[in-house]
Amino acid sequence: MNFKHIPAHVAIIMDGNGRWAKKRGQPRSYGHYRGGRNLFKVATIANELGIKKLSLFAFSTENWKRPQAEIDYLFQIPIEFYEKQKDKFKTMGYQIVFSGRRDRLPKKLLDVMVEIEKTTSSFRGFVLNICVDYGSYDELITAFNQLTPPITIADLENHLMIKEPVDLLIRTSGEQRLSNFLLWQASYAEFYFTKIHWPSFGKRQLKMAIRSYQKRQRRYGGLA
Ligand code: FPP
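# farnesyl diphosphate complex -> structure
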């Protein structure tokens, strides 16, 4: 791996928690628990490898269609994590931000999100961006509604929740689709799909994705 050519912004669609659990005869909730733990593990690795920003799809604007009990459990994960490991966030060494709608989330989760953002706000360098109640249709429509035509690309980007273009977009668990994640930001992203389920995705897989990225020639519509 060439450490001088690391993608600055990596995005991951963390898919397959349910399948990972099923394979092990465990409930889906256990898969989500392990997926949540893995989120911080992979963030630490991304930081060590020199990635600048990692955007993770934790809960989409469409995930509200899931059974309420599963939604409640998913929201419980960051809350429990924070309550058990408050001090860890103080020494995290990197910034954590949340992107997505804030008007539909339970207050307890919102409070924890704000606390985590505040606790880590002075760290510089790597940014972990956790997308909760995020969807690109929602992000783009909200931005368009804040603007008056004629608008430029720069105007629109100034109104997006996530401003940096994605360099490398990874999806775990075999599916090969974008599912309303970072539609605008991933316009020129390189895609990497792996069959590995999210709770099993680690350093080896992230390095493999980066190696694959480094072999690509990005032309942005131009010639080589
Ligand atoms: C996909 O697995 C994963 C999710 C829908 C949630 C990802 C969430 C976490 C890793 C936990 C952190 C949560 C928050 C809110 C910060 P799936 O359930 O779609 O798996 P399947 O496709 O195998 O059923």
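# post-check
The chain has one domain: 9-214.
DSSP finds eight helices and six strands in the chain.
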